[in-house]
Amino acid sequence: MQTANPSAIGTPTIRRRLIAMVYEAFLLIAIEALAVFIFIFATGNRQEPAWRAGLMAFLFLVTGIYFVHSWRGAGFTLAMKTWRIKVVKVGHAKVPFRNAALRYLLAWGWFAPALAIGALLDLHHLKEWALLLTVGLVAWALTAFLDKDRQFLHDRIAGTRLIALPKVQKAQKAQAAQAKAKTT
Predict the structure, then answer these.
(1) pTM beyond cutoff 0.85
(2) Is residue 141 part of a domain?
(3) Which helix (H) or strand (E) segment is 85 a member of?
(4) How high is the pLDDT of residue 161?
(5) Residues 163, 92: contact at Cβ < 8 Å?
(6) How far is the C-alpha of 171 from the C-alpha of 101, rounded, in Å?
(7) What is the Cα–Cα distance from 52 to 59, expressed in whole angstroms?
């Protein structure tokens, strides 16, 4: 099944995408808090280094499942839906698993370099980490300015793109509410 040409729909502004990412971070805190609870319950709150590494791997997996499932299904997470942003693969009705998984792995480019450098430098102060992460985030965000369609680097490499969804008009919302009320 083919989809409409998303480049004709438009790309959300970088500002809008970054604001959606902040909202996404708050939602992820809740998801990962539940995952930590499950992991601690299942492991008896073991604190040895191997178990801590297991927790990190589990959180990476849970986060990946959340994003890949959301992008493959509706094409957006709750934060993306709120900000009317959708991830698509041109020529496909839904984002294929391979592209969604690759997008998730590549999106770690926002954080992975800063995390690796911080670990190598053995940073211990919050200010140092905050500065390093901020530099990494800004650098990755700037990759959109290198792309003719203003897509981030991970979208370009994964073969996906973000599109701006149109606002739902009040009349359409009212019609949908009336139709829903009639069916119940």
Answers:
(1) no
(2) yes
(3) strand 85-88
(4) 95
(5) no
(6) 37
(7) 11
